[in-house]
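Workshop exercise sheet. Pairs work together: one partner reads the sequence aloud, the other fills in the structure field after running the prediction. Swap roles for the next sheet.
Pair: D.N. / O.F.
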Amino acid sequence: MLSTEPKINNSGQKYLAYQDCLSPNQTLFPLTAKVNNRDCLEIGGCDVTTLVERFGSPLYIVDEVTLRTACRQYLQGFQTHYPGESRVIYASKAWNCLALSAVVAREGLGFDVVSAGEIHTVLTALDQIKKTDVPIYFHGNNKSIAELEYAIEHNCIIIVDNWLELENLVKLGENRPDTPIPILLRLTPGIECHTHEYIRTGHLDSKFGFDPHQIEAVFDYVLAHPLLNCLGLHAHIGSQIFERQPHQDLAAVLADWFKLGLERGLPLEQLNVGGGLGIRYLESDDPPSIEEWVQAVSLAVAKACQERGIAYPLLIAEPGRSLIATACVTAYTVGNRKEIPEIRTYIAVDGGMSDNPRPITYQSVYRAVVANKMSQECQEVVTIAGKHCESGDILIKDITLPKTNPGDILVVLATGAYNYSMASNYNRLPRPAAVIVQNGEANLILERENLADLLRQDRLPNRLSLI
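Structure field:
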């Protein structure tokens, strides 16, 4: 197992300097994080406090080195541990934008998308970087006809979730009888993981995928409709998973179904095991490294195939959180302080649930530091409150930090996954900007919304106008 023991500075704040051997999902900070001679947090060679002065706050800061390192560890891991061919695709719902799509594609990954909007973003990025033949897999439990048409037009592989979708695809295939539509079938494996119920997707009581008792009927339907080209099977058991056994169990279940499909005459050649590897949000979290997860999955799939006498399929994994989460932090400016004697001290920041809805939605926990006081002693326990008109708008409850003052820069760690992608304009707040940093250079990848942006889609009917 790779060593990830963090270094500790005088205040007890933990940070990690960049080391090639580290697995990004096991670190609290981005790999390039360090404390500079101004006692400020530095990421990608850029002082975080200077970034806030330049770009404002709240501000998402993406470390390019961390993201690229995670991509490479996945690719290299499968090349090392899986005896057949493999493919890594980025679960872009974690954070889908032009710049991140470009980085991931340049590292050799494909894409998992769940809407026409995500497809459009990925295609635009690929066009701008002049990269073709990048595989795109289209997920979703209620894809519209328009979305399916758009995906088919742009050569996406459709991961079919239900009977209605199969029927719609057959109808759409009639418009192109000479080119069967490539699909994977998503099946519900009935495997439970110890994660939040909202991010468990493999158990039987799930809105995703065909139930196991439907498998033979689904196979027969596909065989009866040559307009569908069934390339393989897919299953996903959840997110933020630390256990390896469920993934090993999944390999056996999928291999049984794969063999059944082959025996019934389906030309199966791809096996998608989903993603779900967790990350370290707190010091107490202990996820497997990327390589350990890849090794466990690869060996389990290889063993399951060997035991059933089937050729190694193209093994596909679709990591999201473990690629992007640790690569990003969110910087806020500290504002109001409210002390309630013998109860709690609240520290308010200039963002909250609109830029990070995970604490109020999933009860998610995070670690934070004061970026301009990295070596100061942690003196008090405070609760980090957002600025929204909502009592539940709490980013972090009861965290130990140095004494803060208005204007200090608070940095919440590991905010790359499901923060910007789930951000909203609640209370009519503009969404924050995002920058990507490397070698002391910071580039804007998402502009900060302004007040005019908030009204861009608004329409006032003439009958309501005073004019």
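Discussion prompt: The first strand starts at residue 7 and ends at 8. What would you look at next?
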